[in-house]
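quick one
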Amino acid sequence: MSKYVPASQINDQVTWQDISPGGDIRESGNATLVNTGNWRTMIPTYVESKCKQCMLCVPVCPDVSIPVKDGKRLNFDYEHCKGCGICYKVCPFGAITFAKEEK
Ligand code: SF4
Ligand code: SF4
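structure w/ iron/sulfur cluster:
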């Protein structure tokens, strides 16, 4: 058991002495706690009418932001999509557009 406060429990009451050296994260499964969608400057858009459900885009997403249910891909998880554009590059059917995100 680590003597440091887990990453998921760090808040403004936790001091530097309570966190691990360098702030490294030692527990698995906490990527969902970080809203990496905030980092995005470019945004992919799913064009469902063009999608052939080939699934080429799903495994290449580094943020696991293309959900699949019952063998079909769904719309993007914009809470975690960082806007890297890899999915846009691999889609052979033009079912993903990629543009500057207006905020
Ligand atoms: S833009 Fe990048 S992070 Fe977002 S869904 Fe596509 S591959 Fe994933
Ligand atoms: S790569 Fe394109 S066509 Fe294939 S599942 Fe993804 S969005 Fe649909």
